[in-house]
Specification:
There is one protein chain. The chain has 580 residues and is α+β, with helices and mostly antiparallel strands. The protein has helices at residues 14-24, 34-52, 129-160, 189-201, 273-291, 307-317, 434-447, 464-468, 572-579, and strands at residues 10-12, 61-79, 82-100, 110-111, 121-123, 177-179, 211-227, 232-249, 255-264, 299-305, 328-330, 334-335, 354-358, 364-365, 368-369, 386-390, 393-394, 424-428, 452-459, 490-497, 503-506, 509-511, 522-537, 540-558. It has two domains: 10-240, PmbA/TldD fold (2-Layer Sandwich); 299-324 and 339-558, no CATH class. A hairpin with a 2-residue loop joins strand 2 (61-79) and strand 3. It starts with 9 loop residues before the first strand and ends with a helix.
């Protein structure tokens, strides 16, 4: 599902309303909604565990939270006018968190021999207090015993190695109470079966397409969260997603694939069917053009990033490194995900014209629906708008409840493991037009004695392979170190000739690995931003807003990875089409 939370229908102040909310919560009965029953079971078992859950010689939990999500989803898949899959599923999960020790020192951020948390568990979809309560009891017991064992290992490790605990393990945050009305999935399944089949049948008209697939998903998620600190949340999300994907193959065996993604918070916010048809045909036509392009030669020079390519660059190089990540210890080594930007707080990392803001509350930008926002993060903390970079200077990172030297409190950006960005706005004070950027590209090319410079307009969605399940068995992943990034392959890459202004598309290129050092080579930025939908993971989408920009020098080489030979015979649809 999208990591997107809609604004609650009822918003209440924490402490006073929490007391009234708990006091009026009814006893388990048939008249209670599922969310009320789940909340009741959570709070009852939480209270019992806090007061009575003890192992001999050990303290009880100092913190407990339960995060339950009820999900209902309808999904369709089709290819060439026939269904490849259809499902309507309904399930409920429970994610417990049990902490032993104190806020200053607990069982977290340490990997030892003790078993970890039970993780996500299933709950019944029927509204049954007893069934909920029993499952909550069992997972709490298991997690508590694991937490006690892990805390003892952690204490021994710290004492044995004379380690000082530099930062608290868990920050104290203001508890929130926000109760929205749950929603239920309503979808005309018959109508969508016909739409998806009709869309997928379009590719019968394009024999050069080897593989094509149309996928439709709609889902509703009702989240219930409760913690021993007094957090009480009932939140809801509704998502609609249509993906049109296709692939072809060049004569030299290069597999070329691309996709179109359409989203809405409700069915009415999806584009009309005529636009879906148009995008499917544009995709097929685009792949035909890409299939017949000449192959690039090795290149080292200026690259202008436009539109989707500009957004994908910033997603991989900037957004991926804007998270505050706590140090985690194990009995053998120190394990920490490298963040090359973390040590640069207070320093210039981008051109002075650029400011970067993470704003989870934005739902629309210049007429575009914005995905990736939410009201409360995974840890139940209210989201916050954060200025990450101001006038090129790094000011802050997206943080969760694990204090570090960069942040002592959460700013509501936990993804369950550490901080992460949501909807990122990279705004520009520049007045440069795209014509100015092209002119600058020509200047840089002349200075480097190059007859042309490159314009990247579209990069491959890095989630395309797992989402589309296209055959990629022979694709080689370029190795990189922890500090370097391999940008996705360019799909639409253009040579812009200096003397004639002629543009020529090429294919078969890949970027050489880069580090955040590449940000120093941003030579010029445009003055107009655009919003681009980014695929961060399967079923996880967010928007990124960014202007176009030029990198002074980048290396691109011909992709020499092993390739599958094209099919010996033509697509049978070629013969069928010619006979009609």
């Amino acid at each position: 599902m999208f990591f997107t939370k809609r604004f609650p229908l009822i918003l209440m102040t924490p402490l006073m309303v929490l007391q009234s909310f708990v006091s009026v919560l009814p006893q388990p009965c048939a008249a209670m909604t599922v969310e009320e029953t789940v909340m009741k079971a959570m709070t009852d078992e939480m209270e019992r565990s806090l007061s009575r859950l003890r192992l001999d010689g050990h303290t009880g939990p100092y913190y407990i939270s339960y995060d339950s999500s009820e999900n209902e989803r309808f999904e369709l898949g089709a290819s060439l006018g026939v269904l490849t899959g259809r499902s309507h599923t309904h399930w409920r999960t429970l994610e417990p968190s049990v902490r032993v020790g104190t806020y200053e020192f607990d069982n977290s951020k340490f990997y030892g021999d003790a078993p970890g948390s039970t993780g996500s568990s299933g709950l019944t979809i029927d509204n049954n207090y007893d069934a909920f309560r029993r499952k909550i009891w069992l997972v709490t017991d298991t997690d508590y015993k694991s937490a006690v064992e892990l805390l003892e290992e952690k204490k021994a490790h710290f004492k044995r190695n004379n380690i000082d605990n530099k930062f608290d393990d868990f920050s104290k945050e203001e508890p929130e109470v926000s109760i929205s009305k749950p929603r239920r999935l309503q979808v005309d399944e018959t109508a969508w079966v016909e739409r998806v089949k009709k869309l997928s049948a379009i590719f019968r008209e394009y024999p050069h397409i080897q593989l094509s697939h149309v996928n439709f998903k709609t889902s509703v998620c009702n989240r219930t969260f409760a913690s021993s600190e007094g957090v009480r949340l009932v939140d809801d999300t509704e998502d609609w997603l249509l993906t049109i994907a296709a692939s072809t193959q060049a004569k030299d065996g290069e597999r070329i694939k691309d996709m179109e993604v359409m989203t809405g918070f409700t069915e009415s916010e999806l584009p009309p069917f005529e636009e879906m048809e148009r995008k499917a045909r544009e995709l097929a036509a685009r792949l035909k053009v890409l299939q017949e392009l000449p192959v690039i030669e090795d290149y080292d020079g200026p690259v202008l990033f436009e539109g989707q390519a500009a957004a994908e660059f910033m997603e991989q190089i900037v957004c991926e490194n804007l998270a505050s990540q706590p140090e985690s210890l194990s009995a053998d080594t120190v394990s920490q995900r490298n963040n090359p930007l973390a040590e640069k707080i207070g320093k210039k990392i981008l051109p002075r014209q650029l400011t970067v803001v993470d704003d989870p509350f934005v739902r629309q930008y210049k007429g575009t629906l914005i995905f990736g926002g939410y009201n409360f993060d995974i840890q139940g903390v209210r989201a916050k708008r954060v200025v990450l970079v101001e006038k090129g200077v790094l000011k802050a990172l997206c943080s969760d409840r694990s204090p570090t030297k960069y942040s002592q409190h959460s700013n509501g950006h936990s993804n369950g493991f550490y901080g992460s960005s949501s909807v990122v706005f990279i705004t520009s004070d520049s007045k440069n037009t795209n014509e100015d950027l092209v002119a600058r590209g020509k200047e840089l090319a002349k200075d480097a004695d190059l007859p042309y410079f490159l314009i990247a307009r579209r990069l491959l969605d890095p989630n395309a392979a797992p989402m589309l399940q296209m055959p990629d068995s022979n694709n080689t992943v370029v190795a990189s170190s922890d500090s370097s990034t391999v940008l996705p392959r360019p799909l639409i890459l253009v040579k812009h000739w200096v003397d004639t202004d002629k543009e020529e598309m090429v294919r078969g290129a890949r970027f050489e690995p880069v580090t955040t050092r590449i940000l120093k080579d941003i030579d010029m930025v445009g003055g107009e931003e655009q919003a681009t939908l980014m695929g961060r993971a399967t079923e996880n989408y967010t928007h990124l807003v960014t202007p176009n920009f030029i990198i002074k020098s980048m290396e691109l080489t011909k992709d020499t990875s092993a390739r599958e030979k094209p099919p010996v015979l033509e697509n049978p649809l070629t013969e069928l089409t010619s006979k009609q």
